[in-house]
Amino acid sequence: MNRVYIKTYGCQMNERDSEAVASQLVARGYRMVAREDEADIVLLNTCSVRDQAEQKAIGKMGYLARRKRRDPHFVIGFMGCMAQNRGAELLERLPDVDLIVGTQRFHHVPDYLDSLTAPRVEGAPVPSSIVDTEDEAGSQNTIREHLPDRKRVSAFVSIMQGCNMACTFCIVPRTRGRERGRPIEEIVREVEGLAAQGTREVTLLGQIVTSYGRGEIPAKDGKSPFVQLLERINAIDGIERIRFTSPHPRGFNADLVAAYRDLPKLCEYVHLPLQSGSDRMLRSMNRPYSIGKYLEIVASLRDSVPNMYFSTDIIVGFPGETEEDFRATREVFEEVGFDMAYIFKYSKRSGTPAETMDDQVPAAVKEARNQELLSLLHGQSESRNRSLLGTFQEVLVEGRARKGDHFTGRTRGNRMTHFDAGERLVGQLAPVRIERATASSLYGSLVLSGVESKREAALAGAPGSHC
Q1: Which end of the chain is less crowded, N or C, counting CB atoms within 10 A of the terminal residue's CB?
Q2: 83 with 214, same domain?
Q3: What is the band of 434 on the pLDDT scale with cuts at 50, 70, 90?
Q4: Residue 373 lies in a domain
Q5: Angle between helices 323-336 and 363-386 (to 10 degrees)
Q6: Rounded mean pLDDT of 105-117?
Q7: What's the whole-model pTM score?
Q8: Are residues 120 and 152 in the same domain?
Q9: Number of folded domains that form the chain
């Protein structure tokens, strides 16, 4: 009864939370398995940002509950945002669930599973379902463990939890609580430990990562706590690249813009959520910036790093969005020339102000607008990738592709790249000459003298990379 499978829905922060829980379980003597049909315990780490994610998790749990009825010793549970939001209400719909743990109580999962799986005297009552969605001071400091004996070229590092914003469409402040950050020294120690184990790239995580330390850590030499943290991580030996997500436009002050210019390990890739290109819609969403301000931020970042890559979040079909509002979004989308975007059709979230707003947009209109932006994105991304043909890109070699015998890695601009290589290059920065491009990927050949590769012989000794 010690084999555990965790299925994760949603964002990178959920992925990081799942890994931390898995690490804590391994330390307690549990064994993580790669398939749910091999597991004695299945936990679903859930997302509440969109209704579709909740419905997927509920559907999966219904399937698992059927197995539990055949095997009463099988343990099933919800963790994460949906667990936090719905709590014991989930038991009314799925009474076979054993465990419901909210976002501030992940570190209690090993204790709860010990209780649920403890040997029982024959005839003794079955343990009641456990529901724990309480707030806990200091919970942001518990997401620090990583799975042992696992070589990770790239790693997520959680630096804070919670959100103080009040976007009318968003349920995250309700599921994650108020902003609270980890101490800089503790984060630095975690990253140093990862570097010692071979990690070369870290992605700093927070609901609004650029708000890190606000009100808790004083500014220093005109630099925010977040920029101070970036500088500390930039100085760590072994770490070659730094990324972060998800920020907020209001966090891009002069110090952060300058950091892209001054910190060589901070990759020239920024995720800058837009949500809408209409000032009217931004006000309705309670987003505290205008399109003019947003475009100023984009311009300042491009002044700092001319070849900056941009990704964004867009919501189409927000209540009251007219055709004129959508056209404004499309115009900004084209003007910025986003290289990547997460485009969502608005869905009602219980308890948010937008749920009860007038002028809900019909599903067919949302779908049409979603497809229009996806088509535009495809063209923009393909054009940017094709502009790299013939260039030499610095790629962090991550490992073998899931399909085929080639290897994959990412450029500093976060473009997935495919090439032939050898296992000894995993975790190394390597120059790749780009020979083919699609909207989603780059394809090329290694350019390293003395490194054997199926396709590099003709290119050995070519010029070094540039990004």
Answers
A1: N
A2: no
A3: very high
A4: no
A5: 10
A6: 94
A7: 0.89
A8: no
A9: 3
